[in-house]
Amino acid sequence: QYTAVKIAPRYHNAPVIHVLDASKSVVVCGNLPSKDKKDDYLEEIAEEYNDIRDDYYANLKQIRTIPINDARKKRWISENENFNITKPTFLGDDILIFDPQDSTKQISTLFGLRQQTERDSNVYMYLSDFISSTTIDYIGLFALAVFNVEQEAQRLVQKETDDYSSIILKLLGDHLTEAYLLSVKYQGIRPAAGYPTKPDHTEKLTIWKLLNAKESIGIELTKSVAMQPSSAVSELYVAHPESTYFVVGKINEDQVRDYANRKGMSIKEIEKWLSSILAYDVDSQQ
């Protein structure tokens, strides 16, 4: 579906074909070079992708959202009125970060997205709901990684042609980072940028600046905001005792425009990063 909806429409001069696994590539490789089979095969693929796109956008139109300003009025509110922990401050759907040495000096902002699809609970959540809007609160940021795993894995492949040990070594690196996280005792939740509770990967750029992660411990971000080394993890700590994980889900144009304005980015750029959660067809808006 992703190939048909997101990738194929971007390529007009060459075919885009999704192959589920290597065993299925024989059919593709057999049809494309053949003068007798190629045109019919590509037409068949194009028709299949058109049907997939039509179904996708038809289902998209069935998604019902509410205006973002209405969603904000129906934010999650703690039922525990006696809970009064010292808390970072939020503004709208954004979490304002202040200098730990000077609580009057704002040094950054974590921008956020709120649930917008119609919900039976009539509650539309975002992370800032678990942050105080009136007093200074606290939020945790961290990044950690196991280093040199990729280099050793590459050496095993190139010098010893040991693919199996290379794969096992990479898995070990991933499991070591997760094992460390499981050893840390904490209250609340650990949402990560790019995941359902906080789906915008570009928020990692802000987290990296706050942590000085590249200079301090050597974890870098690629152009696509992936972490290097690959066995790296970065998350937030939100300590409210009633905090819970949730899925932002699909969002509509009004929230995208609002979010782009708050982040100082173009709507087109935001739509690129959030393409998987948009409740509308970007191409039809252009």
Task: Give a description of the structure.
With 286 residues, the protein is of the alpha+beta class. The chain has 2 domains: 2-61; 68-285, Vitamin B12-dependent methionine synthase, activation domain (Cobalamin-dependent Methionine Synthase, domain 1), CATH 3.10.196. The protein has helices spanning 2-7, 25-31, 38-61, 68-73, 149-160, 163-183, 203-211, 213-217, 253-263, 267-273, 282-285; strands at 89-91, 94-99, 102-110, 139-145, 220-221, 227-228, 232-238. It has a 3-stranded antiparallel β-sheet, covered by helices on one side. The chain has a two-stranded antiparallel ribbon with strand order 4-7. A two-stranded antiparallel ribbon has the order 5-6. Mean pLDDT is 86; it is low at 81-87. InterPro entries: Met_Synthase/Corrinoid, VitB12-dep_Met_synth_activ_dom, VitB12-dep_Met_synth_activ_sf. This is AdoMet activation domain-containing protein. One of its GO terms (biological process) is methylation.
Do you know the CATH topology of the largest domain? Cobalamin-dependent Methionine Synthase, domain 1
Strand order of the largest sheet: 1-2-3
What is the CATH C-level name of the largest domain?
Answer: Alpha Beta
In percent, how helical is the residue content? 25-40%
Average pLDDT figure: 86
CATH architecture of the largest domain: Roll
- C-alpha end-to-end distance: 22 Å
CATH superfamily of the largest domain: Vitamin B12-dependent methionine synthase, activation domain
Task: Give unreliable regions as ranges.
Answer: 81-87
How does the helix and strand content classify structurally?
alpha+beta
GO biological process, one term: methylation
InterPro entries: Met_Synthase/Corrinoid, VitB12-dep_Met_synth_activ_dom, VitB12-dep_Met_synth_activ_sf
Pfam family, one: Met_synt_B12
GO cellular component, one term: cytosol
